[in-house]
């Protein structure tokens, strides 16, 4: 059996768009997830706090999830919170950064503590509008306003997939050279240091350690151990890219269900597909979208807690 860390979710923004469904699944004690490569293969995953050793949320807007955070008191959890410099030309569905998202970040930090809200400044991309100087200016402003509200910032540089190449047409996108990456990373590291932030990369091959930037672990065993106050016997996630430092987890999201519409997003192929999938969403279904069908093969995902209770050390 495998350790059970829940990723909610790299594939979609559950806190922003599916909070009622998520809390219903917590109350029911299980969730069902379709295999992205085999539609009729469904995993049934326990959400019992007896076996779930942590939940990692990925979001650009946690506000819809926040009123009921008390319902998660039996679970260790933290947030990967993406806050970027882009406007609606790149992130059409994300509310105002200044009026909504920045205050939400600060409010969430007040609720659960700055060590449990990780700032993601990613992906970094260059266009005619979003130049190196633009990134440096905006990152500096954000770092100043987030000082004390987070301990860590994770950066990455945009990866071009077939769908993202299509979605980013018309933006004036220019791939970053290695020289530009190094120069920008060095400038961001200087800014981060002034605001007491640790800077890490997400799934990047390039070595930026000379500038104090190490390879990160977004599903972070050390952080989960601190929150859970016990050791966890977790292994590296073999299903991610080799550069990814994350611990193994089970993602309960679904591709093409996020309505932010970010044009760089690898989890969105088209807005039409997103609209079709979200129309099938039922907050009472065990699946994020749709229902269990007669042809579906549902199998229980074997899992157990990986806590080493006898080794409590916090």
UniProtKB/TrEMBL annotation:
Pfam families: DUF1848. InterPro entries: DUF1848 (IPR014998). This is DUF1848 domain-containing protein.
């Amino acid at each position: 059996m495998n350790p059970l860390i829940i990723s909610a979710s790299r594939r979609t923004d559950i806190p922003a768009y599916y909070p009622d469904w998520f809390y219903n699944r917590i109350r029911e004690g299980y969730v069902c997830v379709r295999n992205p490569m085999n539609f009729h293969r469904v995993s049934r995953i326990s959400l019992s706090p007896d076996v779930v050793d942590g939940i990692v949320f990925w979001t650009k807007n946690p506000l819809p999830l926040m009123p009921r955070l008390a319902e998660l008191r039996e679970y260790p959890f933290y947030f990967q919170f993406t806050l970027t410099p882009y406007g609606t030309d790149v992130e059409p569905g994300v509310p105002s950064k200044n009026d909504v998202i920045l205050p939400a970040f600060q409010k969430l930090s007040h609720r659960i503590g700055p060590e449990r809200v990780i700032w993601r400044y990613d992906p970094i991309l260059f266009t005619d509008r979003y130049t190196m100087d633009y990134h440096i200016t905006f990152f500096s402003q954000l770092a100043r306003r987030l000082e004390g509200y987070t301990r860590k910032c994770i950066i990455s540089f945009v990866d071009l997939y077939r769908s993202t190449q299509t979605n980013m047409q018309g933006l004036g996108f220019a791939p970053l050279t290695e020289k530009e990456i190094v120069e920008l990373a060095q400038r961001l590291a200087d800014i981060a240091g002034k605001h007491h932030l640790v800077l890490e990369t997400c799934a990047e091959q390039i070595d930026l350690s000379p500038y104090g930037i190490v390879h990160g672990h977004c599903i972070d065993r050390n952080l989960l151990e601190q929150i859970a106050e016990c050791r966890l016997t977790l292994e590296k996630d073999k299903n991610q890219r080799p550069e990814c430092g994350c611990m193994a987890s089970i993602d309960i999201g679904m591709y093409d269900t996020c309505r932010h519409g970010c044009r760089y997003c690898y989890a969105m192929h088209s807005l039409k597909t997103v609209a079709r999938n979200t129309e099938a969403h039922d907050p009472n279904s065990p699946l994020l979208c749709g229902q269990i069908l007669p042809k579906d093969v549902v199998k229980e995902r074997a899992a157990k807690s990986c806590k080493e209770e006898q080794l409590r050390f916090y």
